[in-house]
Amino acid sequence: MSVENVLKSIQENNIEWVDFRFVDLAGRAHHISLPASAVDADTFVNGVAFDGSSIQGFRGIEESDMVMMPDPEATYVDPFTAHPTLNVMCDIFTPDGERYERDPRSIAVKAEAFLKESGVGTAAFFAPESEFFIFDDVRYESGTNSSSYYVDSEEASWNTNRKEEGGNLGFKVRTKGGYVPVAPVDTQQDIRSEMCRLLEEAGLSIERHHHEVATAGQAEINFRFDTLKKTADNLLVYKYIVHNTARQYGKVATFMPKPLFGDNGSGMHVHQSIFDGDSPLFYDKGGYANLSEMALHYIGGILYHAPALIALTNPSTNSFKRLVPGYEAPVNLVYSKGNRSAAVRIPVAAVTPKGCRIEFRTPDSTANPYLAFSAMLMAGLDGIKRKINPTELGYGPLDKNIYDLSDADKENIRSVPASLEEALDALAADHEFLTEGGVFTKEFIDNYINLKRDEAKAVAIRIHPHEYSLYFDC
């Protein structure tokens, strides 16, 4: 959409406020609203000022002035505001007109440009399957003398004997038993359908929605693939609409990877492929899973760099509570066709040449999508450049349920890092593939690692409630 068309849309939709948004390093959106009457063509040239020192990981107070530059191609009408509001995604610039190198969206732009300059292809397409939970009640605290959390859901397996609910308590979702049941077990058909309706109105093309495996309201909505930056934009819209629709229903949605102990966590399986114009480059009929040599080398890059990559695709301490065997989490660094226990899966059901793709199943939605998608693309391109053969390096293919293998068979299979600290160590040691073409800078990576180490330390030094169960009577 051109600036002219955005301004026309403001008039036609009787927009009262224009909400300018940007994303921080953690992937959370921030916003400043201007009266629609104050927004004109100059706004898209001069931008909107904000204080960068108040955003974690951005700038110091001595250089705090920053500018949001609106992107007329990334707008939608907010479905939740009482006063008609148009949301506009922005890029971040310094006051002297330079793109800010810590702006995650600018990294996505550079990654897409690097792909074209490499001569490998013209566009990379991404499609995340971002799972989430819908709870009825969430409470938590972390203080000097107490630490706790509590979540509840009307459909949770632990509520078959809840007196307050009355009758019909038998229709609860069993632990690990929530994959696509019908009502009355699935209580959230309508709320997911409403989320999808609003997502469609915001411009996303919805492919399906369903209940996921875990008890207590785990859900998934799939939207159609798009280019790297556009998909990252769409994922921010997706999370915003999921969060706020749940709130309108008196519930709360979370993309936290592991909010429940003893049941499946929420991942963000990321489908990806490269095209040259209209020609898919990952398809080769007759190859393993109909994959081209380029696709195999792309997989090689993903798996070779996975320990470092995971610092960007699974960037929370909670991520590694999900990445444990036994809960469908892809902890094994191998590839396979159709095998959901592998870190990289090649979908084979009903796949056309243009639909041929690889799926990296390790990531979760604590990731900043601009950083995560860019890092995956850079790892894959490094695999293509260096012709990394995943089979020669022992990454598969492994078309077996890896969880059922003997300990001896598992010995030669690499696993994901066991903690955020391990992943950050890997990123500190292996990041040259990210700095190719200046897509990521060394300064950005160092800053990111320091911020994430602070998070890991904040969790590590706190007393865990389970430690009382283990040690209080010593």
User: What overall form do the CA principal axes indicate?
Assistant: globular
CATH topology name of the largest domain = Creatine Kinase, Chain A, domain 2
Q: What is the top-level CATH class of the largest domain?
A: Alpha Beta
* CATH architectural grouping of the largest domain: 2-Layer Sandwich
Instruction: Look at the structure and give the mean pLDDT.
Output: 93
Largest sheet entry = 10 strands, mixed
Beta content comes to 15-25%
- The first-to-last residue Cα distance is 66 Å
Number of domains: 2
Quick one: CATH superfamily of the largest domain? Glutamine synthetase/guanido kinase, catalytic domain
Alpha-carbon Rg, integer: 23 Å
> Can you give the helix content as a percent range?
25-40%
| Beta-strand segment tally | 17
Determine the structural class based on helices, strands and strand pairing: alpha+beta
With helices defined by DSSP (H or I, 4 residues minimum), what is the helix count?
14
The stretches of 5 or more residues where confidence is low (pLDDT under 50) are: none
